[in-house]
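Fig. S4 source data, part A: sequence.
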Amino acid sequence: MRDTKSIFFKYFIICAAVILISFICLGAVLLLVSSQYFSGEKRDLLISNVSTAAEEVAETAGSTDELTGSEVEDILKSHAQSIGGELFMTDEDGNTVVFTGTRLSGSVPKGVLEDMKRSATYFSSDMEGFLPSERHVSGIVFDIGSEPFYLFAAISLTEQDSYIWNIMQIFLISMILVLAIVLIIVYIATKQLTTPITELAETATLIGKGDFTQRLPEYDTTEFDILGKAFNDMAVSLNNYDKMRSSFVANVSHELRTPMTSIGGFVDGILDGTIPQSEEKKYLRIISSEVQRLTRLVRSMLNLARIESGTVELKCAQFSLIEPIVDTLVTFENRLEEKNIDVRGLDVDRVIVYADNDLIHQVIYNLLENAIKFVDKNGYIEFGFDTHDNMTAVSIKNSGEGLSQEELPQVFDRFYKTDESRGKDKSGVGLGLNIVRSIVKLHGGKIMVRSVKGEYTEFVFTLPGKPQEKEGSAKR
């Protein structure tokens, strides 16, 4: 038995109820129309026959000197057969003088006679108890000579009931057959309509258990097809995030384990005397270096988490980008002199950007640190600036080995290090460029990298030059 709270059950019951109510309404209309049609048909038949019978009786009486009861009875019987009922004639006191069916006792009530007119009338009544049951009745008053007479034609309601019942029987049989066929079709259609929902629920359950490889098929229904594609895209994203999470945990574990292992080993060596006392300062300096490395890793991870969670509040203002670049170059002055690096492209006017000075300073620092790390000896670092519309593009280019086409798409990934980087840099944690991308994106800019193997590597990022005008704000 299906769950009464399920969409399938509710949709099926609603459809069945609507169809059933429609049939009931249709049956009521059919019953009303049939009854009115029958009544109208019998009314016309009664009025026509009672009028004609009265005319024939009056005409026969006028053409003969003597009108017998048998002659009148013959006329009335002929019309009684035509209507399938009975006719009877009364005098002005309501006493029956001629009848074609069962003899009626008593007399027609005066009230009924007083309501009669010279034109034929129709009503449905038992004539205040004169007739044994309620019937369709038509009456007319006419004169034979100088005496008024009343002629009535009556048809039992049983015939109407039988007629309506036959029609309703046909309707009920047809309704049951059609309803059965329609409910089967509705059942199949409802099942097909709710199948994607069931599949979606089952797939969501499996994904909730960690199986991100589950996918929904394509559907013929547009809405379900759109939902299925969106769900599959979500599953792909979750799968990617899961891989990123696993990779992130593995990388963090590796980055934390390496310095901690070194620190633990050296501390144990100092404590148990394995390391000579004369060498203790040397290893203490190594321990200090590893501690600083751990500090940088934790700080970078916290900064990245704050940026991506949206908890960083930008303190934007307009300033010249040359100033943080020069300040950063001064920081790296010794390393620049060691490699004899030529710095180019700073002989420009003020390059104004609208951004958070501290965060952009970190962007410049990370990019310059990366450039100095990989620039070749006696090489160069070149800056470029280009303003278009409201965006300023900044490029930092360094000569050197460069990156391969396979490495370019990965340089912004967390903890990614090229093989060359692993050999040249022992202090980096592989989060610098990822932080750069997050900060630039936070300012509404973009960053890209291009490189020619054996020649150069160039990072280009964009920043707004002035405050972005909010959509819908009034211009003055």
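Fig. S4 source data, part B ends here. The longest strand covers residues 135-144.
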